[in-house]
Amino acid sequence: MTPSGNSKDVSLLAESIRGLVTRETTIMEVCGTHTVSIFRNGLKSLFPERLRLVSGPGCPVCVTDQGEIDAAIAVAERKNTIVATYGDMLRVPGSTGSLLDARSLGRKVEVVTSAAEAVHLAEKTPGENVVFLGIGFETTAPATASVILEAKEKDLRNFYVLCLHKRVPPALKLLADAPDLSIDGFLLPGHVSVVIGLEPYRFLAGQFRKACAVAGFEAADIMLGIAEILRQIRTGHPEVRSMYPRAVRPEGNEKAKELLAKVFDHVDASWRGLGEIRESGYAFREPFRRFDAASMLDIAIESAPPPEGCRCGDVLKGLISPKECPLFATTCTPTHPVGPCMVSSEGSCAAHYTYARKETKLSWDA
């Protein structure tokens, strides 16, 4: 069946899914965009009770560690410094406020829509150090690598990147091996897979015997991916398959991967809720280290506890649903977020708050 998103396709796939579930089964959707689409389209209402979907660490703003948020806010406090960031980062609470609070106090915090825009900002303000917050997974890291090459070619001396990018496969390895989780399969992220392809996920099926499928973001795409995961579980033959061939090639995007390999090395990185994960982050290779804000501007990233009572980390790990957090929809709301899972448009808590608080059952009957 070809995914298209129309109600007839979704209804047929839902019927197929109900027939494939023969036991208690847990599937983790890794991508935040998948999470939002699942809730927006009411897909959970179509699943049998024995099929449980949990959200994973697929929101890049959400997994940014508390100490990294604090470091970004501390940078904004410096003189002759402009912090350039994507909009989702503005309202993420740090230990003593947010970037939005810093801007309200007169600090120079600029919202950009691309890494390239941050480079242009540095060119226009030669008397200021422009620090771009490099947030995101393999999807956005190539763009950061590309602007580093551009800045080097232009010999920009006032452009820096606080590199907080993270790699998805090492986090999935931790989740697959976690004794407190019982994940049967992974709905793999479409955008990340466009870049890295399928090979980096093979260990999930080979080493951990987890069923895996890459899916797109329309309702029928997601249902098709879930049906494929359930088929693998039913037959006992886990593998990694792309159900999104119109965008994801097995080898990924070679040019993007070459950019990443040229500019970055892999290093250990801290994730909110998951702790330090081996080789899950990026660091600049030697020819590009003069753009590394952490070392060149002596920015310390120190360990910091999450906001009191916030269980965003447990949500990201799939241990609880957002509504099991005691702050959900009371102290913590989109207008007054306590943790980043309620801030980002891809955050699980924000998706639950917007679409699932009343658990309204939606119909996809043709």
Blueprint of the fold:
Blueprint: H1 7-20, E1 25-29, H2 32-40, E2 51-55, H3 60-63, H4 66-76, E3 81-85, H5 99-104, E4 109-111, H6 115-124, E5 129-134, H7 141-154, E6 159-163, H8 168-176, E7 185-188, H9 190-196, H10 202-206, E8 211-214, H11 219-235, E9 240-242, H12 254-263, E10 264-271, E11 275-284, H13 293-296, H14 312-317, H15 348-356
Parallel strand pairs: 1-2, 1-7, 3-4, 3-5, 5-6, 7-8, 8-9
Antiparallel strand pairs: 10-11
Give a brief rundown of this model:
The protein has a single domain (1-356), classed as HypD, alpha/beta domain 2 (Rossmann fold).
In words, what does this structure look like?
The protein has a single domain (1-356), classed as HypD, alpha/beta domain 2 (Rossmann fold, 3-Layer(aba) Sandwich), CATH 3.40.50. The longest helix is centred in the middle third of the chain and has 17 residues, at 219-235. It has helices at residues 7-20, 32-40, 60-63, 66-76, 99-104, 115-124, 141-154, 168-176, 190-196, 202-206, 219-235, 254-263, 293-296, 312-317, 348-356, and strands at residues 25-29, 51-55, 81-85, 109-111, 129-134, 159-163, 185-188, 211-214, 240-242, 264-271, 275-284. The strands form three sheets. Strands 2-1-7-8-9 form a five-stranded parallel β-sheet. A four-stranded parallel β-sheet has the order 4-3-5-6, with helices on both faces. The protein has a two-stranded antiparallel ribbon with strand order 10-11. Helix 1 runs parallel beside helix 11, helix 2 (32-40) runs parallel beside helix 15 and helix 7 (141-154) crosses helix 12. Helices cover 37% and strands 16% of the residues. The chain is an alpha/beta fold and 366 residues long. The relative contact order is 0.18. The model is unreliable at 1-5 and 359-366 (pLDDT under 50).
